[in-house]
Amino acid sequence: SLCMGGLFSKPKPVDPSATPPATADKKNDKKMATVKRAALICIDGWGVRTENHGNAILQAATPVMDGFRDGSEANWGVVAAHGLAVGLPDGVMGNSEVGHLTIGAGQVEYQDLVRINLCVSEGKLPSVPNLVAAFESAKKGSGKLHLFGLLSDGGVHSHINHLFAILDAAKAAGVPRVLLHMCLDGRDVSPTSGPTYVAQLEKKLADLGLGEISTLSGRYYAMDRDKRWERVQLAYDVMCRAAGQCEKPEGTLADFVTAKHAAGETDEFVKPVGVLADGGIADGDTFMCYNYRSDRAREMFEAISTEPAFETAVKRTPAQCFSFTQYSSAFTSLQIFPPQKLKNGLSEWISEQGLTQYHVAETEKYAHVTFFFNGGREEAFKGEEREMVPSPKVATYDLQPEMNAVGVGDAMVAQITAGTHPFMVCNFAPPDMVGHTGVMEKAIIAAAATDVEIGKIAEACKAAGVGLFITSDHGNCETMLTEDDKPITSHSCTPVPFVGLLPGGAKFAKLEGGVADVAPTMLAFMGLPIPPEMTGKSML
């Protein structure tokens, strides 16, 4: 990229955009004297769509944004703000939280499901450190690894593909014995689909030559989340093999579950039953739950990994317990996929350089331009000034579609003109908040009002020599109507703009990407290094 080695390698004459940053540290003043000032506008809910039908943006008077798109004064790119580009499953519409998080982080924080799916599909699961640790614990201990989780492809709490990938990895790692304690679903999938999944698992185990099904239980018992410990205990006592808690099924286990249906128990409500005499959890074994969603995994995991919240004759103490993700910050057990920690996002990195910054939004979107933009951090970074402009007090925002765009625009112009902060960011709420009302004519007003304020900020930036960047967290008001003119109140999967109105005519080298590319592009323009954590790419 041109960003570091090209655009900013030669010494530059002092220009108005290179005001000394406001910082108490005078040594930093000298070091940072050539930082270019930059402003970021995040328009909430402004997607790029060429069809006119139901498109409040195209039908509104938006001469400023139209000029950026059609003229030569600014760079006009489009970036993805949905699906994998913001860490969500492919094809899922974006939202304000993940949009701002990704823009501010300069990297994609994948949701647990997406992260695990990518890890499995790329063949990286066998080398995940804490999965390796789980296998080693079993091999060095009793030789037994117990796997507990929901057996279906519902994809809400778990996925059968994850279980199969763990089994493949366990076989490759040489784990001597794997015992499976399976929860039947019947809630996120058909209530009588259990035999299908059990048959798939039986075939997998036979093909692999590793793994035995030890326990079957409806999720109603083993995956309670309402502290109904008497339900959890029924499953716990079977998994730990209290006396008389085992049956010897005739034929396949798939047939066994079908017989339960005939007796009136659908998958979710199959009473816990042991199906392998020596398959219970014993002291010194290794235990792992492969559900990635925490709420229905937490109670059983607590009972096995810490202390049961009930009296039981068969309390077991495994050598080590592992959860697939973080089920609770109170648990000290290792997680196969621990929470990602976002470090060195745009706000933190600018603060680390000894520079100051300014964040402003109206009440409705204040958290997005502070907490989410800063990577889920509540308190401001050193040198970060925040301002909240009050949102109008109306029942629904179609009653005042311009909201307080004027207040945000005025606040931003004042900061640009004052020359205090090297980095400034604002959010305009109307296109999203009015888009959610589904009232097309009001969304048109919201888009037009926002465009006026963008124009004011653009003029202030040009006068002060400040680089202006404009993007959005997701689409919304460009997609207001279905083909048969019914209102659409949700977000969309359309790309969003990424505009660069830059002093000296600096040009984007590419015009497509994802919203994670915004932060590295801005740092490159400012003449600051890009932290290694930012996986987005500068578009300069």
From TrEMBL:
One of its GO terms (biological process) is glucose catabolic process. Its EC number is 5.4.2.12. Pathway: Carbohydrate degradation; glycolysis; pyruvate from D-glyceraldehyde 3-phosphate: step 3/5. This is phosphoglycerate mutase (2,3-diphosphoglycerate-independent). The active site is at S96. Its cofactor is Mn(2+). SUPFAM superfamilies: 2,3-Bisphosphoglycerate-independent phosphoglycerate mutase, substrate-binding domain, Alkaline phosphatase-like. It comes from the Eukaryota. GO terms for cellular component: cytoplasm. Residues 1-30 are annotated as: Disordered. Substrate binds at H157, R187, D188, R219, R225, R293, S294, D295, R296, K365. Mn(2+) 1 binds at D432, H436, H491. Keywords: Glycolysis, Isomerase, Manganese, Metal-binding. It holds the Pfam family iPGM_N. It is an enzyme of class 5 (isomerase). Residues 36-529 form the Metalloenzyme domain. Belongs to the BPG-independent phosphoglycerate mutase family. Residues 116-328 form the BPG-independent PGAM N-terminal domain. HAMAP family: GpmI. One of its GO terms (molecular function) is phosphoglycerate mutase activity. InterPro entries: Alkaline_phosphatase_core_sf, BPG-indep_PGM_N, Metalloenzyme, PGAM_B_sf, Pgm_bpd_ind. Mn(2+) 2 binds at D44, S96, D473, H474.
